[in-house]
Amino acid sequence: MDNQQSEQLLQRKGLKKTKLRHALIQHFIKTQHAQSYADIKQALMEATDKSTLYRNLTAFEHAGLIHSINDYSGVTKYAFGEAPIQGNEHAHFVCECCETVYCMDGLAPLQLDIPKGFRAKRVQTIIRGICADC
Amino acid sequence: MDNQQSEQLLQRKGLKKTKLRHALIQHFIKTQHAQSYADIKQALMEATDKSTLYRNLTAFEHAGLIHSINDYSGVTKYAFGEAPIQGNEHAHFVCECCETVYCMDGLAPLQLDIPKGFRAKRVQTIIRGICADC
DNA sequence: AATTTAAATGCAACACGGTTGCATTTGTAA
DNA sequence: TTACAAATGCAACCGTGTTGCATTTAAATT
Questions:
Q1: Could you tell me which residues come within 8 angstroms of residue A111 by beta carbon, excluding any fewer than 6 positions away?
Q2: Which of A83, A102, B44, B87 has CB atoms 3.0–4.6 Å from A67's, for a disulfide?
Q3: How many CB atoms lie within 10 A of CB A49?
Q4: B103: distance to nearest CA of chain A, Å?
C-alpha cells in the first residue's frame, strides 16, 4: 500500500488525511483519464457517501489537485493535475466509441477573431472522434 | 399573430402544426440567443408539459430546425437554425456576466495537431468572456 | 362532413447528477 | 488527553431529462 504519494499531496495542500482522500488520489493517479462521479463511485468498492465524495471532489479541485472537465455528456468529469492556466488551456478529446476523455496538451491555440465589444477570457475546446485504442 | 413563418417551417419539415410548436418557433425567432428548457418554460406562460416540450425540442433538432448547444452550465440549450455542418462548426460564446450564449459564425477554425492514432471528427469550441452588452 | 389513424399531448413516475442541513465522528494541534 | 475544526454519513431536496400509457388532436381518406 503506497500511501506516500497521496500523503505528501494532502499535506502539501493542507488537506486532512482521510481514507477516502487517499483512495481518491490513488484512483486518479492510476486511471489517467477523466473520471465521472459514477466512475469513481464504481471504482471505490467501499460504500462511499455521495455528498462526501462530491465535497472532496470540489475540495480537491479548489486545492488544484484535480480539475473538472465538461464534455458533451452533461456530467462533470475530473482529471488529475492542475487546472489549465490562462493562455495554456488544453483541449479535451472525447472518444465517440469508448467515451474516454483525454487531456491533450500542446495543441496549437485557437486563432480567435472575436466581434468587437466581446472580450474572450477562457477558451475550451472539445474534440470528438475516435481514440487510438478504438 | 404572424403564424405564417412557423406554418411554413413546420410544413416544410413535415411536422404537424400544433399550438405549442407555433409558439416555440415564434419564441426561437424572437429570442435570437440560445434557450434552455427553463428559459422556454418561463417564456411560454401557458402551462406547458415538460415531456411534451422536451419531445418537441428533440423533434425540432432532428428536423434541423434548431440545434443544441452544450455550454459549461451543464444544461442543454437550443438555438434557432441548422446544426453546424462538418467543417463549418461555429463557436459558442458564453457571457460570464449575463450567461447569454451567442452563436459565433465565421471564426477562424482551430489549428489541430492531434496525436497519431487519434481521429478528430467534430470540434466544439466554447469561449467564455464578457459580451458586448455587459 | 364523418371516419379513421398515426402522431402529439398530458400526466405520473422515475433515474440521475448534484446540493444542503444537521447530527456524529475523526484528524490534528495544543 | 483534551478540545476544536473539519470531515463524514444520512436524509431530504432540486433540476434536468426520460419513459410508459391513456387521451386528445391533426390531417388524410372516404
A1: B108, B110, B111
A2: A83
A3: 10
A4: 11
CA proximity to B36, closest of B10, B82, B72:
B72
Question: Domain spans of chain A?
Answer: 4-80
- Strands of A66-70's sheet in order across: A35-36, A76-80, A66-70
A54 close contact with B: CB closer than 8 A = no
Instruction: Write out pLDDT tens, residues A64-94.
Output: 999 998 887 889 999 998 766 555 567 888 8
Instruction: Check if residue B14 sits with its Cβ under 7 angstroms from strand D.
Output: no
* Matching residue, cell 428559459: B39
Burial label, A56 (beta-carbon count in 10 A; 0-12, 13-18, 19+): buried
Contact assignment for B127 to A117 by CB distance below 8 Å: no
Instruction: Please count the other Cβ atoms lying within 10 Å of the Cβ belonging to residue A88.
Output: 11
Topology (CATH) of B4-80: Arc Repressor Mutant, subunit A (1.10.10)
